[in-house]
Amino acid sequence: MDMRSIDLNLLVAFDAMCQHQSVTRAGEAIGLSQPAMSAAVARLRALFNDPLFVKVGTVMQPTERAQALAEAVRRVMVTVQQEILQPSGFTPETSDRTFTVITPDIGEMHFLPLLLAHLAKAAPGVRLNAVSRNREAAGETLAGADADLALGYFPDLKGSAFFQQKLFDNKHVCLLRRDHPQLRKGSLTLKAYLALQHVVVHPDGREHVFERHLQQTGHKRDVRLELSHFMSLMPIIESTDLVATVPRDLAAICQRYTQVEIVACPIACPVIPVHQFWHRRSHKDAASIWLRAQVAQLFKAG
DNA sequence: AGTGGGGCAGAATTATGCGT
DNA sequence: ACGCATAATTCTGCCCCACT
Fold first, then answer.
1. Is the same domain home to A10 and A58?
2. CB A172 within 8 A of CB A270
3. Residues whose CB falls within 7 A of nucleic chain B?
4. Distance A40 CA to B8 C1' (A)
5. Distance of C1' in C19 from CA in A281, Å
6. Residues A17 and A52 placed together within one structural domain of the fold
7. Nearest Cα to A234, choosing from A250, A214, A248?
8. How far, in Å, is the CA of A135 from the C1' of nucleotide C14?
9. How far is the CA of A281 from the C1' of B9 (A)?
C-alpha cells in the first residue's frame, strides 16, 4: 500500500471508532457529522478490504482485522500527539536529554566540573557528552548535528552558519613547582624566563597561540620537553625545574590540585578569547537555548 | 519563483430511508 | 426511537496553467 494513497485523517477516524465503537459518537469525538463519519468508515473499509466494524446489537464491534490494526494505529496517534504536535519546549527538571559539547582537554577541566554541579541541581536527568575535535572538524561536527555546543578557542568557526557568544579572555601565565629556585629571586624577568628550561604542550590540531607569538617576536626558549596533552603537565611541573606557559584557567586548575605556583609571564602575548559556539540549526532549539544560557550564566565574565 | 483563476475530485452536510 | 447508510447538494482543497 502506497503511503500517498492513504488520507492519514482516516487513521484518526479508525482510532475514534476503536475508542467509541459507534459511528455517531466517534464522529462527535473528532468533529465529524454522523454521515461524514460513516463515509470515513466506508473509505477505511475500501482501503483495508474488510468491514472493520460490524453492528452487533447496539455497538459497532471491531472485526479481527480492526483489532489487529488497533494497537499500531493507537501508537501512531500517541506518537503524533506527543512528539509532533506538542509545542517545542524544554523542561530541564524532567528532561533526559544528552547534550554533546565540543571542548579540548583544558575545556573539560575548566567547564565540566562547574557545569555538572549546576546540572545536577537544575536538570538532574540531563547527560553530558564531551568530545574533542580539531579546528576543522569542530565546524563539521556542529553542522552535522553531532554536537550542540563548542566551548573554547575556535577561530575557524566563522560565517553565517555559526553563532558565538564570548565568555571570557584567557591570558598566558607561567607555572613552576612551589619550591622552584626561580621563585626566591623575585619577579620573573624576560631574561630569567628565557634562561629557564621549558615544557611545551602541542595539543593535536589546536591553535598554538603562544608559540606563534614567540615566532613573530623572535624569542627563543630552551624547550626540554614537548607534550601533546595538558593533563601530563601537573606531575611534570611538580617534580622538575621545568616551566610551562599555559592559559590562566588551566594554571588555576593545576595550582588547585598540585604543589605549583602561578607567575606572570614576562612576554605579553595576545589574550585568547573563549567563546561558546553553536550552529544556526540549533539557534531556535529550546533545549540548546537553555544550555547556552546556563553556560553564559556560569562562565561569562563581567 | 510566486500569484491568481478555472476546473475537478473528493469530503462534508442535509435530508431521508432502512433495520433493529 | 435510535443509529447506520445513502442520495443530492455544497464546500474545500488541489492541480494546472497563464501571467508577472
1. yes
2. no
3. A 7, 9, 32-36, 39-40, 43, 57
4. 21
5. 37
6. yes
7. A250
8. 49
9. 40
The domain total for chain A is: 3
- Report which of A83, A75, A71, A16 is spatially closest to residue A44, judged by C-alpha positions: A16
Same domain, A203 and A291: no
CA of A285 to C1' of B1 (A): 29
Q: Residues for chain A: how many in total?
A: 302
Q: Within 35-54 of chain A, which residues have Cβ less than 7 Å from strand C?
A: 35, 38-39, 41-42
At A236, list the grid cell.
611534570
Amino acid sitting at position A222 = D
Give A200-231 pLDDT, tens digit per residue.
988 765 657 788 888 888 888 899 998 888 88
A141, A132 Cβ separation under 8 angstroms = no
Smallest CA–C1' separation from A57, nucleotide: B20
Determine the protein residue whose CA lies at the shortest distance from the C1' of B12: A36
pLDDT at A87: 65
Nearest-CA residue to the C1' of B19?
A: A55
> Which residue matches cell numbers 561558546?
A276
What is the spatial distance between Cα A234 and Cα A167, in angstroms, rounded to a whole number? 25
Instruction: Determine the distance between A36 (CA) and C12 (C1') in angstroms.
Output: 14
Q: Kindly tell me the burial class for residue A167, based on how many C-beta atoms sit within 10 Å of its own C-beta (0-12, 13-18, 19 or more).
A: buried
Per-residue pLDDT reduced to its tens digit, A140-187: 888 888 899 999 988 888 877 888 999 999 899 999 999 998 888 878
CATH code for the domain in which residue A54 is found: 1.10.10.10
